[in-house]
Design a protein that fits this description.
Blueprint lengths: L6 H32 L24 H11 L12 H9 L8 H9 L3 H12 L2 H10 L6 H5 L4 H17 L3 H11 L10 H14 L8 H29 L16 H9 L13 H25 L21 H16 L6 H4 L5 H12 L1 H23 L6
Helix pairs in contact: 1-17, 2-3, 5-6, 5-8, 6-16, 8-9, 9-11, 10-11, 13-14, 13-16, 16-17
Length: about 400
Amino acid sequence: MDQKIEPQRYRDDRARLARYSYASRALLIFLTLLASYLLPPFDASAKADAFTAPWADALVRWDVFHFAQIARGGYVHEHQWAFFPGVPWLLRATALSQREFLLGGTVLVLLCDPTLVMYDLSLLVLGNRDAALLSALLSLLPSSPMTLRLVPYAEPFYTYLSYRGMLFCERRQWIYATVSFALAGLFRSNGLSLAGFLVWGMLIRPFVEGRARTISITTVLKCALLAIIVFAPFVYHQYTGYRAFCTTSVPPKWCRNTIPLIYSHVQSTYWNVGFLRYWMLQQLPNFVIAAPPLLAILSFASWHLRRTLPAQILPSPPPGHQPFLSPALTPHALHATFMALILLFASHTQIALRLVAAMPFTYWAAAWLMVQSPKIGWAWVTWSVGWGALSVLLWVAFLPPA
């Protein structure tokens, strides 16, 4: 916690954020129920699956099918390895019956609220109570509220655990950070990138802050070991795929690759993921709807990095912008830039609407816009509210993007 903030004010801020978070979830549930009553799903088969009770009809869309099928029957088909085991494990562990496969997962999503963690992390990174509170409030306006705040998707768990790990990194609690990042890696492949925060905090930040001129071999080895632990869920998932398909009498062609990764094969073969593969004219609308968060991230990252790299903070930052020049922001700026470029050039770009919520830098960028360019900042807020509401309607109607 920022040492300058009064304990009572800190408690009041957290209580206020908790109330706003509960209210936003209640509003989301109400809008979902209303939309499901008024809008029939485009694909009526969403109501026909045997693993859903009637109350869950509006939740069974897109990846939820895959997660629930894996939870019920395990990994069987190649394409299922695109989905990491975290959500299926949780659904299986909390299933009340074959007809109540989603209730436990939905409750866990409601419990994994990252808002207060976002506030604590922002206090440490930005070092300013007003900026931290603004950032946490803006995080209540995700661009994909269904997949972050209600539906048993990978994003709620990945986001919560990522934030936790980043908070532990700021506190230099490396073991706890590693555990959080490794658990996050059970839900999404981009959990691999979270190891970068350990590398920055243990090996690079001491130089940036002038606390060290050399790094001991012990620290390097410890960092390497912790990074390996973060990589372990990804490696395990690839191993299960290799064992399922590459030890048969007639293994598929991808098993003969130099590094036989089933995840890369599945993404390329079934989802056509690859460098510039999504850059087609018919995908232009998806680039347009993903533009606001990606532009905010890249603009703020560029602004911050041009003023703080190489590892030298401006001696007299402009008044009012000091929180956004904090050196603690730099690893987040680098990480967010890396992820944004992948989303832009080597992914289905519209999934940025789901994934950017897992990066607190998204909401620091929004807060920066509110301070630096209030008109643009309010435009971003207006877009977040409008698109968030529309995305709920699209979800219930079983229409893309998802």
